[in-house]
Design brief:
Strands 22-23-24-25-26-27-28-29 form an eight-stranded parallel beta barrel, surrounded by four helices. Helix 2 packs across helix 3 and helix 4 packs parallel to helix 5. The chain has five domains: about 1-155, Galactose-binding domain-like (Jelly Rolls); about 165-265, Immunoglobulins (Immunoglobulin-like), CATH 2.60.40; about 270-435 and about 480-555, TIM Barrel (Alpha-Beta Barrel), CATH 3.20.20; about 605-705, Immunoglobulin-like (Sandwich); about 715-840, Immunoglobulin-like, CATH 2.60.40.10. It contains 14 helices and 47 strands. The radius of gyration is 27 Å and the shape is globular. It is α+β, with helices and mostly antiparallel strands and about 850 residues long. About 15% of the residues lie in helices and about 35% in strands.
Length: about 850
């Protein structure tokens, strides 16, 4: 069997009717190389049907077309296409005849072409996809993940989940590696073959071999089960993500054996209320980030290097786990998590039968849920990073005794398919009790005058607005007897109780259900100091997943600072673009809240200086539960000396002492207003500002900010100097405005232009600015706080040259090499070590 890329030589166009085609009214197809997002390049507008949820992008229906040259000798072969993801309602046609569909925009699926092909001829493949008011965030549209072509003998290993690997018994002397290989006979003759499996250790040495015969009747499947004993196993863990490879050969069918390479990890998972989650016998607390599937300025298009970069940067920011919100994760990101030791909670759906958007997946759920669960588990099964399956997110049915039985079906289906991981559900008590929510609000309002409850739960802007409207409203609701009763059955069917914004229940769950394991599946970023203490103080609470780790398109402005005189609506008005609720912006730059979180986690002892923007000094503002202040780590501001500024210094020390240009100007306790923060107000003075952390009067760390001076220079850095030519390859070009001493010029933004020549092309160009009407498909884009990011896609072998220019600044040219792909087919050409080094360079 051969599995080859099927991402080149496609074209796409807006979908029209067959009558328009006949009348010549349809547009010609635009050449494109997959993966591709058909929406990200369209014009946003304030009246777009997607509204704030979809970042004011338009909806659309699109068709993708390519041709497949099918030689005569394939008439005795099995041919299939593997789609990693098509958003959404995919319809597949061969030579004009419909052959398959897939409503779910995130499910991987395989389509057999047998019986539809014309041999010895060119065959036309068409894929239709569409999106329209069907999600609560930006989805993109089209064939946004990779496509692969499978060509094999009629007797072959199944394409999807054909090799399943578990490690049921592990100790320091030996690990049992159990391999189940599914062989299908799509022919008309009974055939006998041999399945040969070798286990390669992380260094490539063969450490176990087994051969097993299998006879299959026509049009049947058979499973070969092998147990291979690996001596002295290297355990996969967050700190040491050791990966083994199973090399499977199907011999005796064709002249050349079919070969499959499957990576896996050897590790144990345990769960109990006394130790929490244990991996290889050691307790692990999940420092989690919720993330959406889009790649920021690239839209929904999924590239291996973009997924890898996200995982590396998230782990560098202190996270050791991610929750895929609210859909199954891409293969490329799962691979990256395996390589870099990041734990995964993979999620099935954002809705079951009760719609959250007028045309969402709920319309297809009753018929398709089982196949979509099977697809997710098939994708995840061999990935050691996956430790938890989530069967949903904020599902209204979880509070209804009859409707909640869907959750039981989902949970049992997952366990049937994979009994090696744990099952959770991101349950929001507020959503679960939605049918009685008016009663809750009335009770809360009445209690405010008698028992100190919330003053009001009324707010505009939907469920999210109500949830974030007051500090104590969600706590009151989460712990109310109404929610406890409504969620009892849904909680009981889970291995781990997942609580969205339910941290107030942690102690209640410990008292009333001491055997229960709990995880904060979604939490307010503004509460990480209190939440993390709850996690560390309660052994049965295994972790916290903040909303969110990486900024995303859609649900715009939920984390913005609302200044007096601006709209106080829950969502940001056009041209707001991103959520702005995350630790990292859409380009991967860490915001101050990320350094605060890292300090709370106990992973950072160096103080961090964040300065609120002086231009907003004195303006009244409000912060929502997903918000952080508008602080920036800079001492370069276009304000006169003496202008008042407010500083936030994050530290785990006792006190912070400030020095300005060599003299001590202030000293404050850490935690007076908020844990891990020392607050200062002082007049601005250009120069060097130093924060010194003191514990018991002794210095334990310091950090300095300097004012940029002189002419601006372009600081241009490539994430790597070379790459192989492969579908997921990208170069990331970080561009910053700095002075001659390397100080960032954050308060003098300007347009920057990028010109790419040679063996690559500009794939996307943009900044982390959350409110902008600028596009990502142009060669000029404005900086935000002195930064902008360009993404270059290799097109062929050779030299890529990138010229960066801006008004009043000397041009900068950087170059990178694109090489022929490595000859090792089962090893990714980017290893954890060289990719990390290139990011940090």
């Amino acid at each position: 069997m051969t599995r080859s890329s099927f991402n080149s030589n496609w074209s796409y166009r807006p979908k029209t009717s067959i009558f328009a085609d006949v009348q010549g009214q349809s547009s010609a197809g635009i050449p494109v190389r997959l993966p591709h997002d058909a929406i990200i390049g369209l014009e946003r507008r304030a009246d777009a049907p997607s509204g704030a949820a979809g970042a004011y992008f338009p909806a659309g229906a699109f068709e993708y077309v390519t041709s497949l040259d099918v030689p005569l000798e394939w008439s005795d072969k099995h041919v299939a296409l593997e789609f990693e993801g098509v958003y959404r309602d995919a319809m597949i046609y061969v030579n004009g005849a419909f052959i398959a569909q897939r409503p779910n925009g995130y499910a991987a699926f395989v389509v057999s072409l047998d019986g539809f092909l014309e041999y010895g001829a060119q065959n036309t493949i068409r894929v239709d996809a569409r999106t329209h008011d069907d999600s609560r965030w930006y989805t993109g549209a089209g064939i946004y993940r990779e496509v692969h072509l499978w060509v094999s003998d009629r007797v072959h290993i199944l394409e999807q989940n054909g090799v399943r690997i578990t490690t049921p018994d592990i100790d320091d002397q030996c690990a049992v590696v159990a391999i189940a290989t599914r062989v299908r006979n799509a022919g008309i003759l009974t055939r006998t073959a041999t399945v040969s499996t070798e286990i390669l250790d992380p260094d490539g040495n063969v450490v176990g071999v087994q051969n097993s015969p299998i006879t299959t009747l026509p049009q049947t499947e058979g499973v070969v089960r092998q147990r291979i004993y690996v001596p002295g196993p290297q355990r996969w863990s967050v700190d040491r993500p050791a990966l083994y490879t199973a090399r499977t050969r199907l011999n005796g069918i064709a002249d050349e054996p079919e070969i499959r390479h499957t990576t896996f990890g050897i590790r144990t998972l345990q769960l109990d209320p006394h130790h929490g989650l244990r991996i290889n016998g050691e307790t692990v607390k999940l420092r989690g980030a919720c993330i959406h599937h889009d790649n920021g300025i690239m839209g929904a298009a999924t590239f291996a290097d973009a997924e890898e970069r996200r995982i590396i940067l998230l782990k560098a920011a202190g996270f050791n786990a991610i929750r895929s919100s609210h859909n199954p994760m891409s293969v490329a990101m799962l691979d990256a998590c395996d390589r870099h030791g990041v734990l995964v909670m993979d999620e099935t759906f954002d809705m079951w039968t009760d719609s959250k958007s007028p045309f969402d997946y709920a319309l297809s759920f009753p018929e398709w849920w089982e196949r979509d669960v099977e697809a997710m588990v098939a994708t995840d099964f061999n990935h050691p990073s996956v430790i938890i399956y989530s069967i949903g997110n904020e599902i209204p049915e979880t509070g209804n005794a009859i409707a909640s039985q869907w959750g039981r079906k989902l949970a049992e289906k997952v366990r049937e398919l994979d009994g090696t991981r744990f099952v959770t559900n991101g349950i929001n008590g507020f959503v679960s009790a939605m049918s009685e929510i008016s009663t809750v609000i009335e009770a809360a309002t009445a209690q405010s005058t008698t028992e100190g409850g919330p003053e009001s739960a009324e707010a505009d802007g939907g469920i999210n607005a109500l949830m974030g409207s007051t500090e104590d409203f969600m706590d009151w609701v989460a712990t109310s007897p109404l929610v406890t009763a409504a969620t009892a059955e849904s909680f009981a069917m889970l291995d781990i109780v997942g609580l969205n914004y339910g941290d107030a229940r942690y102690e209640l769950e410990r008292q009333e259900h001491p055997e229960r394991i709990v995880v904060g599946t979604e939490t307010f970023p503004s509460r990480i100091d209190r939440n993390w203490k709850l996690v560390t103080d309660h052994p049965q609470v295994i972790g916290d997943f903040t909303w969110s780790g990486w900024d995303y398109l859609g649900e715009v402005g939920v984390g913005r600072v609302k200044y007096e005189g601006e709209s106080d609506a829950f969502d940001g008005q056009f041209p707001w673009l991103t959520s702005w609720s995350a630790d990292l912006d859409i380009t991967g730059h860490r915001r101050p809240m990320s350094y605060y979180r890292q300090t709370v986690f106990g992973l950072r002892s160096t103080p961090y200086i964040a300065v609120r923007r002086p231009s907003n000094y004195g303006r009244a503002f409000t912060l929502g539960q997903w918000s952080w202040t508008d602080a920036v780590s800079s001492w370069s501001w276009n304000v006169a000396d003496g202008s008042p500024v407010i500083l936030e210094v994050y530290s785990n020390a006792d006190e912070i002492e400030l020095e300005l240009n060599g003299r001590v100007i202030a000293r404050e306790l850490v935690g007076s207003r908020r844990a891990f923060v020392a607050d200062f107000e002082l007049p601005f003075e250009a120069g060097a500002l130093t924060a010194i952390a003191l514990r018991e009067g002794k210095e334990v760390g310091r950090t300095m900010l300097r004012t940029a001076s002189g002419e601006a220079l372009l600081d241009v850095r490539l994430d790597k100097s070379s790459t192989d030519l492969r579908d997921g390859a990208l170069f990331f070009v970080e561009i910053e405005l700095r002075d001659a001493d390397g100080n960032l010029i954050n308060d003098a933004d300007r347009p920057v232009t990028v010109c790419v020549t040679g063996a690559g092309s500009l794939a996307a160009f943009g900044s982390g600015r959350p409110c902008t009407s600028e596009r990502f498909d142009q060669d000029t884009h404005g900086t935000y706080d002195g930064r902008v990011l360009a993404v270059i896609r290799p097109d062929r072998v050779g030299l890529v040259e990138v010229t960066v220019s801006a008004e009043g600044v000397a041009d900068v040219v950087v170059r990178a090499e694109v090489h022929e792909r490595s000859s090792a087919p089962f090893l990714d050409s980017i290893t954890p070590s060289n990719f990390t080094e290139s990011i940090q360079a």
